[in-house]
Amino acid sequence: xxxxxxxxxxxxxxxxxxxxxxxxxxxxxxxxxxxxxxxxxxxxxxxxxxxxxxxxxxxxxxxxxxxxxxxxxxxxxxxxxxxxxxxxxxxxxxxxxxxxxxxxxxxxxxxxxxxxxxxxxxxxxxxxxxxxxxxxxxxxxxxxxxxxxxxxxxxxxxxxxxxxxxxxxxxxxxxxxxx
Amino acid sequence: xxxxxxxxxxxxxxxxxxxxxxxxxxxxxxxxxxxxxxxxxxxxxxxxxxxxxxxxxxxxxxxxxxxxxxxxxxxxxxxxxxxxxxxxxxxxxxxxxxxxxxxxxxxxxxxxxxxxxxxxxxxxxxxxxxxxxxxxxxxxxxxxxxxxxxxxxxxxxxxxxxxxxxxxxxxxxxxxxxxxxxxxxxxxxxxxxxxxxxxxxxxxxxxxxxxxxxxxxxxxxxxxxxxxxxxxxxxxxxxxxxxxxxxxxxxxxxxxxxxxxxxxxxxxxxxxxxxxxxxxxxxxxxxxxxxxxxxxxxxxxxxxxxxxxxxxxxxxxxxxxxxxxxxxxxxxxxxxxxxxxxxxxxxxxxxxxxxxxxxxxxxxxxxxxxxxxxxxxxxxxxxxxxxxxxxxxxxxxxxxxxxxxxxxxxxxxxxxxxxxxxxxxxxxxxxxxxxxxxxxxxxxxxxxxxxxxxxxxxxxxxxxxxxxxxxxxxxxxxxxxxxxxxxxxxxxxxxxxxxxxxxxxxxxxxxxxxxxxxxxxxxxxxxxxxxxxxxxxxxxxxxxxxxxxxxxxxxxxxxxxxxxxxxxxxxxxxxxxxxxxxxxxxxxxxxxxxxxxxxxxxxxxxxxxxxxxxxxxxxxxxxxxxxxxxxxxxxxxxxxxxxxxxxxxxxxxxxxxxxxxxxxxxxxxxxxxxxxxxxxxxxxxxxxxxxxxxxxxxxxxxxxxxxxxx
Lengths: 179, 710
Description:
InterPro entries (chain B): Ald_Oxase/Xan_DH_a/b, Ald_Oxase/Xan_DH_a/b_sf, Ald_Oxase/xanthine_DH-like, AldOxase/xan_DH_MoCoBD1, AldOxase/xan_DH_MoCoBD2, AldOxase/xan_DH_Mopterin-bd_sf
Strand order of the largest sheet of chain A: 2-1-5-3-4
Oligomer: heterodimer
CATH superfamily of the largest domain in chain A: [2Fe-2S]-binding domain
Low-confidence stretches of chain B: 1-13
Structural class of chain B: alpha+beta
Number of helices of chain A: 5
Number of strands of chain A: 5
Low-confidence stretches of chain A: none
Distance between the termini of chain A: 43 Å
Number of strands of chain B: 26
Structural class of chain A: alpha+beta
Strand content of chain A: 15-25%
Pfam family, one (chain B): MoCoBD_1
Radius of gyration of chain B: 26 Å
CATH topology of the domain at 400-446 and 564-710 in chain B: Aldehyde Oxidoreductase, domain 4
Mean pLDDT of chain B: 96
Helix content of chain A: 25-40%
Largest interface: A-B, 59 and 63 residues
Number of helices of chain B: 18
CATH superfamily of the domain at 400-446 and 564-710 in chain B: Aldehyde oxidase/xanthine dehydrogenase, molybdopterin binding domain
Keywords (chain B): Molybdenum, Oxidoreductase
CATH architecture of the domain at 400-446 and 564-710 in chain B: 2-Layer Sandwich
Strand order of the largest sheet of chain B: 3-5-1-14-11-12-13
Strand content of chain B: 15-25%
Protein name (chain B): Xanthine dehydrogenase family protein molybdopterin-binding subunit
Largest sheet of chain B: 7 strands, mixed
CATH class of the domain at 400-446 and 564-710 in chain B: Alpha Beta
Domain Aldehyde oxidase/xanthine dehydrogenase a/b hammerhead (chain B): 33-139
Shape of chain B: globular
Distance between the termini of chain B: 74 Å
Number of domains of chain A: 2
Largest sheet of chain A: 5 strands, mixed
C-alpha cells in the first residue's frame, strides 16, 4: 500500500475529489462516504443505510459508480472521486441535473445526489456496451453502445432507492438526457 | 417596483396567478447540486463535535440489571457512555418513548439502553459495540392474533370512536340476499424515509440548539422544553431540509433527546444519526392489522349492511391504535353499519403514524371486500360503487363539502380503458403470464391546524414570508411562496420564504396532509393583511419594511357543518407469472378530486409517490414480528423491500377540477397521502382478475401466488 504508514490504526490517504487533491491521515475504518461527509465537508453524498442497500451514497470512483459507504478510504488511495458537488461545470448544471429539475425527479432530495451520480455512471456503462439484466442476452458484447430504453433505465437505476416514489420522473429525466 | 399600494395593485394587472402553475421547486437547485443541508450536515459544525451511537436492548422484555461500560470507556476516543444509571434526568413527557435512559425497564427489543459518545464516528460505533448489558428477562408476547385474550375495544383510535354502530348490521347481514364474509391481513410496515432520523445538538450556556430531521420543529421544541425543563425560548430547533418522513418524523423521536443529553453531558456538540438497522424499533411503524368484513347487499348491488372489525397491536408503554376500520364510516350509503377497532397490548415497539394511517389499511380491506361483492353479484365494480354513492356522510349525516368520487371513477375508467374489460377472472393468458385489471376507490380526510405567519414588504420591492413550515419533500416551500405571491398580487420571484425553524412564527407539523392548508391559510392571511397595510401606507417604506402577522387559530379550529374528504379512484393492470408466482404491475392510474390543485408539478409527484408506496404495500413490503426474539426480523433495506425503480411501471395521476368553498382560502385539500390509499386494493383486485383466486394477505409475494395457483 502506498498510503504511508500513519499509526497502527490510521493511514495517510491521498484522494482527488472533484478535481481537488486531499491528503488526510484517516482512521483505517473510515469509509469514503464518511471521509467526504465528516472530513471534507462534502455532504452531497448521503448516508441512507451505510450498508450498500440504498444507493444514496453513490459517487463515481475513477469514473465508475460505487456505493461509497462500502469503500474503506484507505483502500482507495490515489483514487479520483466525483461527487454530486462535482457534476456541474461552475454555474452550468450537468444535463442530468437540469433534467431532474425539469422533470421534478425528486421530492425530499435525500436520494438525489446518489441518483444523479448513478445516472452519470449508467451513461458511461451503456456507452461502453455493458449489458444489464434486461439487455437482450443474444446481443454480442462489443456491439457498441446499449440503447437506454425505459426498461434499461429502470433496471440500471434500481440500486438507488427513492422512498418518495419519484421513479417515473427519474426515468423521464434520464431519458431526456439520452435523446 | 416599489411596494406601495399603487404599485402593488399595478403589479397585479395582467399578472398570471402563481397558484395552479407547475412551478419548479424553489430549493430544487440546492438539492441537485448537493448543497441542501440536512440535519447533521451543517457547515458550521464545530471542530470538537462528538458522535453518539445508541445501544439497543437485545431482549424482548425485561429489566437492565447492569451496564458494563468499562471496555467501551477504555477504547480510544470514548468520551462517555450514558446508561440508565448515569444519564441526565429529564422531566415529564406526554410521550413515554422520549423518556430514554430514565429507568431500567425494557418494554421491547431495540429500546435504547445505553448511548456511546466518542470523538469520531468510528470510535462511537466501536464504543457502542463494546458496551455489555445484562438483563433480567421476562417472558414476552410479540405476535398479534385475532383471538388474543387481551384484545380490547379502545375508547378512541387516533381520535376516532373505537366502535360505531348504526341500525343493526348483524341482523341486516343475516337477512341480505347477497352476502360476502371475508378477512384480510396486513403485516407491519415501516416508513423508512431515506434520511435516517438524525440530530445535531449543541448547548451554548443554557440555550439548546438542535438541527433535527423532523416533520415539525415546533413540536420537537415543545417536547425538549418539557424534558429538559427549559423555557421554549431557550431552545431553537431547525428542520430546514428533511429527507422524508411519511409520519415517522411527525412526532419527536428518542434520538433527539439522546443527542441533547449527550451534548449536555459531554459539553460538546453532538451528532447522532440513527443507524438504519436500529430504526424499525424506535421510529414507529404501521401496526399489523387483521380485518374481518361482512357486506350484505340486495341483488341490484344496493348495500344493506357493512361490518368492519379491525385488530391492531400496541405497545406496553403507549396506546396507539391504528384507526383501520374508519373507511366504512365515510364511503358508502348503507342503513346498517358496525365498525369496530380492537387492540392488543404486546411486548412490541410502539406503533405510530405511517402515510395515510387508518385510511390505507381500512380502504385496502373495504375496497377488496367491495370487489368480492361485485364478483358475487356479477356486477361491474365501478357500477357497484356508483350504486352506493351516499347523499350525506353515512356516519355523521353531514353533507359533504364536496365529493367527486363518481367523477374520479368515470374519468379514470375512460382514461384507463376500463370499458373494454372482460370481467371474467383468470382468462387472459399470454404464455405463462396471466393478466388482469382492478379498481378501487380512495379517500382521505381534510384536516387543518392553527398556524401563524408574517409577511414583510421590503424597501427594495421584494417580500419576505416567514413561517415554521416543514418541507419533507412535498414542495411546501414552493407552494407557500405561490400562495403568498397571489395574496400579495406580485410576481413569484419577488417573494422570499423562510421555513423550517422555531425562530419563525408557529406552524404545525407536516402531517395528516394538512400542511399546505394550515400553513397556507396563515400565509394567505398575513399577506392579505400586509396588502391592506400597504394600501394605507403613503410614501416610501421604512428601512425595516412593513410587516403584517397572522394567527389562524380561530378560523382553523372552527368546525364547519360539513364532512370534508378528498376522494379518488385507483386503477391497476398486473401480469402474474404462473411459473415464478411473481406479480408485476404493468400500469397504474390514479384520478383524484382533492379541491384546488395548487402546484400541478409537485402535486403530481405527491400522487405518484403515494401510489408507489401503495405498490410496495401491495407487493413487496413486509415485516415480521419475531415470535422468538421480539422486535422485527426485517430491519434493513435488503430484507424490507421498498419498491425499486424496476418495480414501478408507467404511473399516471390526474385530477378532476373541484371547487370547494368550505375548506380554506385556497380551496385545497391535502394530497400527500391519498395516493397510497386506493392502490393496494386496486392491485389486489387486479391479481384476482388475473388468476381467479382471491389472496387476502399482503404483500402478494410469489410464495402466496404460487400456492394459490396450485
